[in-house]
Each structure stands twice: as structure tokens, then as C-alpha cells.
Fold:
Amino acid sequence: MEVFRRAILQPGPPENFALQTVQQVIKPQKQTKLVQDENQLLENILRTLLQELVSSAVQSGEQIMQYGQSIDDGETTQGHIPRLLDIVLYLCENEHIEGGMIFQLLEDLTEMSTMRNCKDVFGYIESKQDILGKPELFARGKLVMLRTCNQLLRRLSKANDVVFCGRILMFLAHFFPLSERSAVNIKGVFNTSNETKYEKDPPDGISIDFNFYKTFWSLQEHFCNPPSLTLAPTKWKKFTSGLMVVLNTFEAQPLSDEEGDANSLEEEAANFSIKYLTSSKLMGLELKDPSFRRHILVQCLILFDYLKAPGKSEKDLPSDSMKEEIKSCEERVKKLLEMTPPKGENFLHKIEHILEREKNWVWWKRDGCPPFEKQPAEKKVVQEGAKKRRPRWRMGNKELSLLWKWADQNPNALTDPQRVRTPAITDYWKPLADDMDPAAGIEAEYHHKNNRVYCWKGLRFSARQDLEGFSRFTEFGIEGVVPLELLTPEERSKYQAKPNDKSKRAKKEETKGAAHQVEENQIATAANEIDGEGIRAVLEASVTPTDTDATVATGDMSQGGSPIPDEHQKQSSDTDVGQEAGQMEADAEVEAGMIDGGMDTEVDLDPVG
Structure:
């Protein structure tokens, strides 16, 4: 221990004497790196030395980080404790000793220090943030550093030590990676213990409406626990009724530009308080304060943004009536923010931008906090002049070659009765349906739709088992072929046919069917007419006028008598029938002559042959 005391007093950078000091104290088996037992022995020595230095600083009445400030490292003077920490940090950084030893000493130092001295200790931690965040040190000490910062936050007052708490939170945000799950509220639990206390009974001599005062501050109970509004409809009604009263009061008492300029926001930032001042005597002044109004209105927007946030379960989603009320209230709040001086419109745009960015973090948390960091792809150095040779496969391509190799190793593959197995269409498309779900968070480059063999096989299955899904390929691509029952409601709505399209398609098919039916009826009618005329001709041809009828008709006319109408009609009809029959006989004779002529020709040619 005395060797380290002398080393602390040595001038110059730690690399000139740090390793030699460790070798002199421990006498390690390896010259440049300590083993486990040696590390434990050195840690005990350093923790004891640190405790003695802190005790000496307290007894002298000096601040512990400035105790013995007489060491010149070339640029600035340091105290004994910062000098000891620098030596240990150098040894950890160069892996001469165990990397978590510096974090253990910092934790001990914060536990032994008062809150005033802890600010100086934390200032040293902030100055060494880049070194402490190196991978070889961070992996060994991240949990110890997280525990140290959390212990400091528990000891600090959230009302009086706001700046110091903010420094610790900013350090943790920079020290830990963005995807560190320990810093994320995965379950979305709200701090319901942050209660805003206000007066329940009206004091004497109050000049404001005490009912409005109670209504105004009762809104903080709902801002503290937003999920309770969707679970209990009575709480939502109570909240909306109270919010309407507050918004009506803000609208009835607008602030002028002079009142906005009178309240300097820069001066208020210097006297910022983390909690509201809820005294009833201050209610009148607070209503005239533009920054106070902005705080309340921004709280309303944050609450509405949480209720509208996507990705919740069905029971946590607001009802349709709640959505309408949220929309109307949100419009009124934004209008009031725009009217609140100074620069109300500019302030509203900034708040909207912040809330829009917050949605990205909400989705990231609900996707399981996937890491943002990606390892860089290793680039293979290709020698100049060297040509890339394409791989040559035995069977022409990779798939057939693997199949051939697999068949060689499994000679009974062809005789196996289970070798031909066609999967169900839903089982086959399930991986692509999971890729299409936004909640899965699968990046586009890893989707199954990029696998051409997978898509080609899927189209063959759909063509055989799901023609309706196969028909959606021309309009929506490969994602439209996925069965709708596998998709989420949001994704299913993109690929479902609209009712108007279905009705138009049905009407079009009915029109086509009716036109086709009319054409068939016309063809059938024409065929019937032709058949009827043929039958009529045959019947008329079979009827020939007799000589008796002709004689009777001639006798009647030779006697000079005029025939009666019935006889005239009969005579005219008989005449028509006779003419038609004669025409048919003439046509028959012509056809018979053609047939006879042909037959005679054949008969005449036979002897010649």
C-alpha cells in the first residue's frame, strides 16, 4: 500500500510508472497481466487505500476530489484520489489488470461521499466517459456503472436536484447503446406514485371559483395513469367533462401579446420547478401565465397521442365514440396552443414534430427493441487482373446438384411412400404471412418474397388449391396470393376486393350470360323456322289436286255463277296449294333428273371401263 502512496505522488503520466508499481507490489506470474487471484489481491489493496484517502479528506475538511491537490501531471494539478483513479484506469485500459476494477472503485467512492462530493466524482466520470465506454471496459463494468447511477438517483431529490439528475440520465443515455433493454420501459408502466396534491376544502377569503380549482387539478390524476381511461368508461366521462370546463375557461380568457411578452420564458427556465404549485391563491396568476397554459395543453396532447398509439391489444384500444371525442378535443387544444403567445404557431409545430418522432420509439419498443447497430460486411479484396469464376455444378445448377447428392446418400428415397408430400396452402404461405405482419418487425431484405424458388413453388400450389388467391397475383403480386385468413386485419383489408368491384363484376357476368342466352334463343328460333318450312313443304307436296276438284271448279265458273266467299277462299287456297305443289314437283323432277343423269353417267361409263 505504501508503494501505491509513493506512486500517487510521482509526477508525469501514469504510463511511466503504473505497470512497474503493480509488478513491485504483486510480483505477478506473468509480467504484463495479472491472473484471477492476483487481481483480487490488488483490488483489496486499492479499495483499502481509497477508503483511507477519503477518511483523510473528511478529517481535513477538504473536498475529497481536491484533497492533496499538489500533483502536477504536466498540465493541471490533481488530488490524490483522481491521481489514483487515473493510474487504475490506465492499467484497466491496457488490460494489465481486470477491466471492472475501475468501476468498483468508482462505486465505492460514491457510496463514501456526500451528495456535494458526489457531484465532483460524477464530473470525473463524465470526463472519462470515452475511455470507460470502450468495449473491453464496458463489457466488464456496465452493470456496476448502472448500479452506481441508480443509487445516486435514489439519493437525490427530484425536486431540488433536477439538474444533477438530468446529468446522470444524459450520461446513461450516452454510455449505454441505444438498444440497451435495461434503459427501456418494456411493459410501459406509468409512475402512478407521482401524485399532485391540491386543496380539497375551500380556504377562507378565496376569490376564485373553488369548483373550477378542484376540476382543474383533478385532471392530473388522469394524466398520471392514462391506461385507466380506456378500462373504465366512467373515468373517461369524468375526464372529458373536466377537460371541457378547462378548455372553455382558456378560450374565454385569451392571452394578449403583451401578457406573453411580460412573462419571459428564459427567466422562468432559470427558476424551473419539477412540480406544479397547486395553491388556490396562485390560481388566478397561473391562468395568466402562458408557459403554465402550455404545460397543461401539452399534457393533453401527450395523453391523446398515447390513446391513439397503434399496436395495442383489443381491450386497450379506444372505442369509436372515444375516438371522435379525442379528435374534437385535440383540435381545440391545438388551436389554443396556436393562440397562446409568444410564437404560438411555431411552438405548436415543434410539439407536433416531437410527438411524431415519439411514434417511432413506440413501435420500436413494441417490436422488442431490435438492435440498431449492424456489423459491417467484410469486403473481400480481389486481386487486380483476377477474374471471378462462376461455380460449376455437376447437374447444371445448385438445386439439382444438391438433390442428386442427396439421392446418392439416400438410395431408398425413391421407394419411400412419404417422399411425395404436398403441403397445405396455409402451411406453405405461413412464413410469408409472418413477414408481412408489421408487428414482427422483419426487415424487407429478409422476406420470403425475395426467394424465387419459394415464390415459384407457392404459385404452383395456389394454382392447384386456391384459384381465388392465385387470381390476385396479377394485381397485388406475390403478397396477394397469401390466404387472407393468415393476415392481420390491417393487411387483409389491402387485398380484399371492394364490394363495388364485386357488384360490377357480377353485373358484367350477368350481362354476358344474358347476351349469350339471347344468341342461343335466336339460333334456336331460326332452326325451328327452317324445320317448320321443310315440314310444311313436305305436307303440301303430298297433297295433289284431283280431276274432280278441277272439274267442279270449272263447272261452277262455266255456269256464270259467282262463287261465295267461303268457296272463293277455298278455291284460292287450293290454287295456292296447287301452285306450291307444282313448284315442288318441278324441283323434285329437276333433282331427280340430276340424280338420274349422274346415275346414267355412271352406268354408261361402266361398259367403257
Remarks:
- Residues 533-609 have pLDDT under 50 and may be disordered.
